[in-house]
Design a protein that fits this description.
Metallo-beta-lactamase, Chain A; seven-stranded mixed β-sheet; alpha/beta; 10 helices; single chain; five-stranded mixed β-sheet; 327 residues
Length: 327
């Protein structure tokens, strides 16, 4: 990586590290050069620091927003989606923005302010006290604000179709868990994977049960990993941290991590923790988490509980707050 935050993966693929205002302080975005311009894969949050980093990239690579042929988003999370509208508006003619088809309904629920009450009640159901819910909610508002303006027009991408990114033709693969409709992109001849937030080094992707997610995201994530393990991948370029050079080995580590986390979750329930918050406090260092991180800890704990529920290991009763017990 140069001091510009750019890494040349090849002559026509450039990784651009865009700063984030969180402990996880970088999102990896990618520029793929083609005969008709650049394809931009993921965008970052719309902050002054991110805009400055993109200006540095444009100067270093000698391009302008008019040279972006299209913007492709792996999923709808703010750190990937957040500058899509900014880029679209920066060009003289609005740049096409492509979002995975299954992400569209998730996007519509998450970004609608009218649905704020849904997330508010979800946190109360998890056993978080009202004052903390208000703090976490404010952090959610500030993150949503950093995705404005939203694209005025969006196209959708379907799984198991071919997608042209720069000069390469990729297979779009549905990779659920971190986000229900996330797509990752595989180029067979070069054994190249653009893996979004599905497979990460050093950290594990957040797998959460949110008000807008489909049933049992962790179960679907683990099933997806087992399927993807068979692919011959030489290099995978992720949304965070470093490239993945041992695809199968890293997948095995992620599966093992979640099996261990499921066991820890069972032990927390058996040890007398009953609300999602109480169980999360046995697993995560809650006192050291920021308000932004709190909701991820709750969602990930709930995903593990829901996976155990699907396996018949726990039961859940709801009388105001969700209460979990061993079967």
């Amino acid at each position: 990586m140069t001091d510009t935050g750019l890494t040349f993966i090849s002559d026509d693929i450039v990784q651009v590290q865009i700063p984030l205002p969180y402990r996880l302080n970088i999102v990896n975005c990618y520029l793929l050069r083609g005969s008709r311009g650049w394809t931009l894969l993921d965008t970052g949050l719309n902050t002054a620091a991110a805009r400055a980093q993109w200006k540095t990239a444009m100067n270093a690579l000698n391009f302008t927003p008019n040279d972006i042929e299209k913007i492709v988003l792996t999923h709808m999370h703010p750190d990937h989606f957040g500058m899509a509208g900014w880029w679209q508006n920066a060009a003289d003619t609005p740049t096409p923005v492509y979002l995975p088809e299954r992400e569209k309904p998730q996007q519509q629920v998450f970004y609608r302010r009218a649905n704020t009450a849904l997330y508010h009640q979800w946190m109360l159901d998890c056993g978080i006290d009202q004052a903390t819910v208000d703090t976490v909610e404010n952090a959610l508002y500030s993150t949503r604000d950093l995705t404005q303006p939203h694209p005025s027009r969006q196209e959708t991408l379907r799984e198991e179709t071919r997608v042209q990114l720069g000069e390469r033709n990729f297979r779009a693969i549905h990779a659920p868990g971190h986000s229900d409709g996330q797509l990752i992109f595989y180029q067979e001849s070069e054994k190249l994977m653009l893996c979004g937030d599905h497979v990460l080094m050093r950290i594990t992707p957040n797998i959460g049960s949110w008000p807008h997610t489909e049933r049992d995201p962790l179960g679907r994530f683990l099933a997806s990993l087992r399927e993807l393990k068979s692919l011959d991948v030489k290099l995978a370029l992720p949304g965070h941290k470093s490239p993945v050079t041992d695809w199968r080995g890293r997948i095995e580590e992620l599966i093992a991590h979640h099996h261990l986390r499921l066991q820890h979750t069972l032990e927390a329930v058996g040890g007398g923790a009953h609300s999602v918050y109480e169980i999360a406090a046995r697993i995560f260092p809650i006192e050291r988490l920021t308000p932004h991180e709190w909701r991820f800890a709750m969602a990930e704990t709930l995903a593990h509980l829901n996976c155990l529920l699907e396996r018949g290991k726990v039961n859940c009763a709801k009388n105001g707050v969700m209460r979990w017990e061993l079967t």
